[in-house]
Amino acid sequence: MKITIESSERAFDIAAAWRIIGQIIEKPNSVIGLSTGQTTMNMHAIVSDIFRQYPFDVSRLTLFNVDELTNLPREYEGSCYTMIRRQIADPLGIAEEDFIMPPTLSDDFEAEASLFEARLAERGGVDLQMLGLGANGHIGINQPGTPFESETWVSPMDPDFEARVRRETNVPPELELGGLTRGIKDIMHSRKLILIVKGAHKAEIVEKAVMGPISTDIPASVVQLHPNCEVLLDADAASRIIGKI
User: Fold this and answer.
1) Which of 151, 172, 215, 240 could be stapled to 183 by a disulfide with Cβ–Cβ 3.0 to 4.6 Å?
2) 143-159 in b/e burial notation, b at 16+ Cβ within 10 A?
3) Domain range holding 117?
4) Does a structural domain hold residue 227?
5) How many beta carbons lie within 10 A of that of residue 177, not counting itself?
6) 119-144, pLDDT tens digit by residue?
7) What is the enclosing helix (H) or strand (E) of 162?
């Protein structure tokens, strides 16, 4: 596991963006998994800006997101489909058939999970997964306690996140919300992982995930076992591990 620490948030965003661009340039038919949230928004904007100024070949590129919310309209501003579409897929001109995402509404999410993985496998599997880190150590929407052998499934949301989504969407309490997420086993089968984390509020969980024991209590700790993993941090996120690595 390689650990890279950037001096500032801006340097982090640029470095993360170039990890994506570099993968595309090296292998134009790459299958690249993305993540949504505050950590990734700026890096997606940088990828889009560089593409606009200096176009590179994306004609054979496949994009997807590691997870998607369930039982909400796809048009919801917080759906992963909508965020990735606006932030990077549309600016790069990625066709709908090359943007692989499960639906947000379905009568059979188990079948949708299988289809999601089958579509990625048809493209040759995942070359690069950009992976965010939740405050409780989750990756994708695999919450603490998720078995490492888990395959793509519908996971419960983090309670705080679910409460926010319900406030934003006025979803009635009787409607169950969740997230269709690649399982930890599937994530670990990606040829390359980059765990991307910034901000002082993530420093403690970074230390546990990177330096602590490998445990389902901290799902992200499993990346320590990946043969081709980089942990990309800004200085604030790395503050508790500097001097220990």
Assistant:
1) 151
2) beebebebebbbbebbe
3) 2-234
4) yes
5) 18
6) 999 999 999 999 999 999 999 999 99
7) helix 159-169
Residue 21: inside a domain, yes or no? yes
Q: How far is CA 124 from CA 128, 129, 162, in A?
A: 12, 14, 34
Write the CATH number for 191. Answer: 3.40.50.1360
Report if residue 244 sits inside a domain: no
Residue 245 has pLDDT above 90, yes or no: no
Instruction: Tell me if 243 is assigned to some domain.
Output: no
Q: Which residues, 6 or more positions from 220, have their beta carbon under 8 angstroms from its beta carbon?
A: 131, 133, 134, 137, 138, 139, 195, 205, 209
Residue 243, token pair as written in the block: 């001097």
Strand pairing class (128-131; 31-34): parallel
3-state secondary structure of 174: coil
User: In this predicted model, what pLDDT tens digit does every residue of 8-50 receive, in sequence order?
Assistant: 999 999 999 999 999 999 999 999 999 999 999 999 999 999 9
- Structural tokens at position 110: 């188990």
- pTM higher than 0.85: yes
Task: Give how far Cα 149 sits from Cα of 120, 145, 176, 208, Å.
Answer: 18, 11, 25, 20
